[in-house]
């Protein structure tokens, strides 16, 4: 089974290329807006058209990573069973116009603890002596973000609480958790329990001052066990 990543970002097309191919690009985007039609990620919408460029936002889930998917996004011979019907024409026009696309995106793949931010330049190239195209991706900026709860919450890929921004919200969530799971919590005083959890959130290397909501919701027994082990160390 392939790992699933979540990606979001912006693709920048030149205004000239967009104006020359407006109907085609609009149809290409509209196709992706229908859930059953997206390939692995869906393009959300055209956010803005400026004097110089068009901003195309995307946000979705896909196999492996957005970086892997990007390699085949403008390739003419990949994933034929799941192809956008406007893609071949768009690929050809990108190639003929020598259009370079700038893109910035954030990619989150929890299966391999990956959280990255990248800026890339994408162009369409042609195989020698073949009427087939491939995607050339040049990575301009590649930032590996430390994989911990604080950064996952801060970047928006997970919901949760940050000690330096929403401690009150965390305390309220802990109170709800405490009274819902009181029968399996050793501490019989909420204040003592709260003190332990706050110390855990602040000092644990996987949390770094943040706590993802799923840790409290998915499996209370596991959360308490992991916290206890962390505090002992």
Please specify the SSE layout and strand pairing:
Blueprint: E1 4-14, H1 15-20, H2 22-32, E2 43-49, E3 53-63, H3 66-73, H4 87-96, E4 101-109, E5 114-126, E6 133-144, H5 149-154, E7 160-162, H6 163-180, H7 190-203, E8 210-212, H8 213-217, H9 220-232
Antiparallel strand pairs: 1-3, 1-4, 2-3, 4-5, 5-6, 7-8
Helix pairs in contact: 6-7
Q: Helix and strand succession?
A: EHHEEHHEEEHEHHEHH
Number of domains: 2
User: What spatial order of strands do you see in the largest sheet?
Assistant: 2-3-1-4-5-6
**Which structural class matches the secondary elements?**
alpha+beta
Please report the distance between the alpha carbons of the first and last residues. Answer: 35 Å
Integer average pLDDT: 88
How many helix segments? Answer: 9
Q: How would you sum up this structure, described in words?
A:
The protein has 233 residues and is an alpha+beta fold. It has two domains: 4-144, no CATH class; 149-232, no CATH class. It contains nine helices and eight strands. The chain has helices spanning 15-20, 22-32, 66-73, 87-96, 149-154, 163-180, 190-203, 213-217, 220-232, and strands at residues 4-14, 43-49, 53-63, 101-109, 114-126, 133-144, 160-162, 210-212. The protein has a six-stranded antiparallel beta sheet with strand order 2-3-1-4-5-6. Strands 7-8 form a two-stranded antiparallel ribbon. The longest helix is centred in the C-terminal third of the chain and has 18 residues, at 163-180. It is elongated, with a radius of gyration of 23 Å. The two termini are 35 Å apart. The relative contact order is 0.12. The mean pLDDT is 88.
């Amino acid at each position: 089974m392939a790992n699933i990543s979540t990606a979001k970002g912006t693709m920048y097309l030149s205004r000239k290329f967009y104006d020359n191919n407006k109907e085609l690009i609009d149809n290409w985007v509209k196709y992706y807006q229908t859930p059953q039609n997206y390939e692995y990620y869906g393009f959300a919408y055209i956010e803005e058209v400026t004097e110089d460029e068009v901003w195309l936002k995307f946000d979705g889930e896909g196999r492996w990573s957005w970086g892997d998917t990007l390699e085949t996004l403008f390739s003419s011979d990949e994933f034929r069973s799941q192809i956008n019907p406007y893609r071949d024409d768009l690929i050809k026009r990108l190639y003929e116009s020598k259009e370079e696309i700038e893109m910035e995106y954030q990619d989150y793949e929890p299966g391999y603890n990956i959280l990255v931010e990248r800026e890339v330049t994408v162009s369409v190239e042609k195989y020698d002596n073949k009427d087939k195209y491939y995607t050339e991706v040049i990575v301009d900026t590649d930032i590996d973000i430390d994989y911990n709860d604080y950064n996952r919450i801060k970047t928006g890929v997970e919901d949760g609480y940050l000690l330096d921004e929403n401690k009150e919200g965390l305390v309220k969530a802990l109170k709800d958790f405490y009274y819902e799971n009181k029968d399996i919590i050793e501490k019989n005083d909420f204040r003592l329990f709260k003190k332990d959890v706050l110390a855990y959130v602040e000092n644990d290397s996987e949390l770094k001052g943040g706590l993802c909501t799923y840790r409290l919701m998915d499996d209370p027994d596991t959360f308490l066990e992991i916290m206890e082990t962390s505090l002992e160390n």
